[in-house]
Amino acid sequence: MTAATRVLIVEDDPQMVRFLRATLTAHEFAVTVAEGVAAGATAAAADPPDVVLLDLGLPDGDGLELVRQLRAWTAVPIIVLSARGREEDKVAALDAGADDYLTKPFGVRELFARIRVALRHRPGATATAVITAGAITIDDERHEVRVEDRVVKLTPIEYRLLALLVRHAGKVLTHRMLLKEIWGPNAVEHVHYVRVHMAALRAKIEANPSRPRWLLTEPGVGYRLSDGGDGGAP
Amino acid sequence: MTDGERPDPDALLARVQAEAAPPRARLKIFFGAAPGVGKTFAMLESAQRLRAEGVDVVIGVIETHGRSETGALVAGLPTVPRRRVEHRGVTLDELDLDAALARRPTVILVDELAHTNAPGSRHVKRWQDVLELLDAGVEVHTTLNVQHVASLTDVVEQITGVKVRETVPDDVLARADELELIDLAPEVLLERLGEGKVYLPEQARRATQHFFQKGNLLALRELALRRTAEQVDVDVQAYRRAHGIERPWGSREQVLVAVGPSPSSERLIRAGKRAAERLDAAWEVAAVDRPSRPLGERDRDRLEAHLRLAESLGAEIVRLRGEDVAAALLTHAKRRGVTRVVVGKPTHARWRDLLTGGLVDALIRGSGEIEVHVVAPIDRDARPPAPAAPDARVAPPSARWSWAAGTLAVAAVTALGLVAFDHVSLADLAMLYVVAIMIAALGGRGPSLLAATLSVLAFDFCFVPPRFTLAVSDLGHLVTFAVMFTAGLSVSALTTRLRRQEQDALVRERRTAAILGFTREIAAAEAAADIAAVAVRHVEELLGVGAAVLVPEADGDLTTLTSIAGLMPLSAPEQSVAAWSLAHRQPAGHGTATLPGAAVTAVPLAEDAPRGVLVTAGRRDAPPFTADERHLLAALARQTGLALGRVQLASAARDASIRARTEELRSSLLSAVSHDLRTPLAVITGAATSLRDARAKLPPAVEAELIGTIVDEARRLERVLQNLLNITRVETGLEPARAWVPVSELCGSALTRLADVLGPRAVELDVPDDLLVSVDPVLFEQVLINLIENAVKHGAPPIAIAARRHGPQVEISVADAGAGIDPALGPRLFEKFFQAPGARKGGVGLGLAVCRGVVTAHGGTIAVERAGGGGARFVVRLPTPTPPPVPAPDAVPEAP
């Protein structure tokens, strides 16, 4: 990890803060803590962080509000922390511009995987014609997909779906984002389009589609392409 | 032992209930034969005695009429200030009922019970104020003269020739706990009158001059004595009954009064009331409807008035139907064990009895053991009512057409006759005229008379020799003319009667059907608001007035009412009418005796509890409801009240069972939390503290073991919590957020999340890629996770997951190859906190309950079966419509 990576933790629970601060500091992150929406916005402006860890339930307002405020002026990666069962909140935060989420309780391995992915996709990362994520390689110029050297034939939609996921490997993409990118803004309510095509895509990519290794489902939120096997569910 | 020696169980029950009821306030009436006997004086004297004993006595109303001896007795008694009412320029002092109720004395003095309140007061009559005071628990002392007793007014009228308008119902008198007769010999009274000691208002002086004659006073005194004696009698009888002393004669008397629209019926009713009272008998007032002779509007109103009077005097009202009045009365009388029938003396000419058979005759002939009392009418009312004016409602709709048709028919017959005079006989022509008259008669009496007159004139003028004169040579033709008139009148009378019958039948039928529909609909309604809406709609349809159902807002507070049906904003005074009706469980407002000035009528929904009121509006200027309509309204209100009661009971029962279930859940949860949540916490705490305190001394293998334990137990804790959260979510009735999801995706994410638990165990999957279900993906993933986890924990590998569509259902099953589940456990498996006997510990027993909750919330079912290999197979069946289409891949443009 980069020694100079600065993490802003926006969280009001002292034990959570204690755990995050200890863990991140041990891995040589520079940690700043803010306990609410207002403090978070001020801290982000005063000393722009490289990544923000944001709890959604804050004492002085909704974490979603802070996502909107930050997105008004910065593209800094934001990772949302939220409990299971609050899927709508996560989706709202992601659609508002957050980059990823972690479901409480989460393990340290997941935490670092998410931070790593978020930093990798920081703006400025260059787009190349050939992208590889785990065992999947896409050659965008030749429209060719390989899984562990096996060439896979895809329909145009499947290809675009996979290309989108590979370009954001390791990062969650909500149903809405996928629908908007591939079917256009009018289709964002037809979540089953994505699900049906994803099932077809899994059948072609995965060795065992019922226990997928690459194309992971984030229940109630969207999909994530695993970028090596350590970013999946707990 | 004979029946007479032991108390009647019903009577005993009534006594027990009376004793169980809260002590009711006493009513004491100072009763006199005439003004001036000293009732007010006696009442004040007794009040002063009470005051001396320390009783809280106040004056509500006392009329001293400026007499100093009475005035002196008022001294020292606190007074509730009178309420001043301006009415047409005159200031009237009335009893301030609300102030009196607020003051809540032990005893209140209210003079002149028969007084009529000033317009705009809450009640029409002062005796109603008194009843309200009594209901509120205030003892009332009051004064009353015998001529004001309702059932005696006609007797008084006969004695004195004065018609008394201010009356007090006999029920109020019967309600009195003490009736103190203030007796004064007529001579002394006349003496006092002569000395000017009896005050009479100027305008009443002349009218009552006749009243104060010795003969009158004697008669009135006798009446008062007798009435007091009757009351004493009633008390004695009540005492006897209470102590099991039966009257010497065995059977109970029952009086039946037959009434009709004739004004003399009023007298019959009063006579019946007196007879019933003397005999301590129950009494009924019956009216017989003859289907062939429906009453005209006016007669019907008069009959209704009679029945209202009878009801107010305490009679039970009976409506009988039958062509033969005597037979109908006797059948009813015999069935009810009536011992006396009271009927009026016939007032019509004797010949009609010869033709139709007299009612009295028939009654006496068929009465058997029943006594028949025939009561004479008061002379000036004796004449039967004038025949009802032609009833506007019965007039044929096309009256104008029938006038023209009659004239045309006569003209046509005349023209035909003139043309064919040589070929037809005069008799034939006469027949043709009769036909023309009959056609006209279909339009009623007027057209038939016109046609008959025209026919006679035309027939006489044109055909009867000498022709073209009105002279008649043959007298036989006069008979022909008479026949023409008679035919016209008979046909028109028949037509009118038929039409009225038809209309009557129609009204009845419509009403019966409506009530039937009402009963059916209200039985089907499940919520209070639905019931109220049904009631409002039916009242509006049946009576043609706007209606609303009002219920008390909160338990115990009867003053704030909310409308749960009916779009009728009520003004504040109208609200108070409804509130009064609710609190006193009596009708109030327009057409009743309480707050009659209001525009609305309020009827309480139930007599046993203040459930609500039915308010009807829109008839301020219209006549009040007829007895029929009032009964209908009362019946609708009662049905509505019953239905509301049923719903309230049901919801109370439901609340109770929810409370019980919540209670049960809470205790199960507590035990689950104390055991199953603490165990992983204890492990985590133990492992973590040993790592903190003794890390340096621990071998690396033990350290790794402890860390692994912490992680595993934390995850276990999380799963338990997740299930607790899910079951709460499902049980609070949360709507699942449905979406179309491939079953394969649900299985995939469930298996991914369970990777740690599954380890190397084999999972066989048989799920078509394109099988979609409409479910909440997050909740349903939990169902699969719980079923798979269950199979791992209690069964043996391989675990087989299969999904298929069967018609309108999708069936998803999770099976294992373990020992299976005892089918006897059946549905209990899916109960909260249920742990199968001998099952391995580890969960809180929530997993399957969550499954059932989620599946049920999706409209599906879950069951456990024996799998083919002997293990357990859980099957989820979900009703699944055809999934929406997904656009074909080609429909999307090629990627750039």
Structure, explained:
The complex is a heterodimer of chains A (234) and B (896). Helices cover 38% and strands 24% of the residues of chain A. Chain A has a 5-stranded parallel sheet with strand order 2-1-3-6-7, with helices on both faces. A 4-stranded antiparallel sheet of chain A has the order 8-9-10-11, with helices on one face. In chain A, strands 12-14-13 form a 3-stranded antiparallel sheet. Chain A has 234 residues and is an alpha/beta fold. Chain A is built from 8 helices and 14 strands. The longest helix of chain A has 15 residues. In chain A, α6 packs across α8. In chain B, a hairpin with a 2-residue loop joins β21 and β22. At the A-B interface, α6, α8 and β13 of A face α23, β18, α24 and α26 of B.
- Reading side by side through the largest sheet of chain B, how are the strands ordered? 2-5-6-1-7
Distance between the termini of chain B: 112 Å
* Structural class by SSE content of chain A: alpha/beta
**Gap between N and C termini of chain A:** 22 Å
Count of individual beta strands of chain B: 24
The level of helicity of chain B is: 40-55%
**Rg measurement of chain A, Å:** 18 Å
The tally of domains of chain B stands at: 5
Please state the overall shape of chain B, judged from the principal axes of the Cα atoms.
flat
Which architecture name of the largest domain in chain B does CATH use? 3-Layer(aba) Sandwich
Radius of gyration of chain B equals 44 Å
CATH topology-level name of the largest domain in chain A: Rossmann fold
CATH top level assignment of the largest domain in chain B:
Alpha Beta
What is the number of helices of chain A?
A: 8
* CATH level-two architecture of the largest domain in chain A: 3-Layer(aba) Sandwich
Summarize this structure briefly.
The complex is a heterodimer of chains A (234) and B (896). Chain A is an alpha/beta fold and 234 residues long. Chain A contains 8 helices and 14 strands.
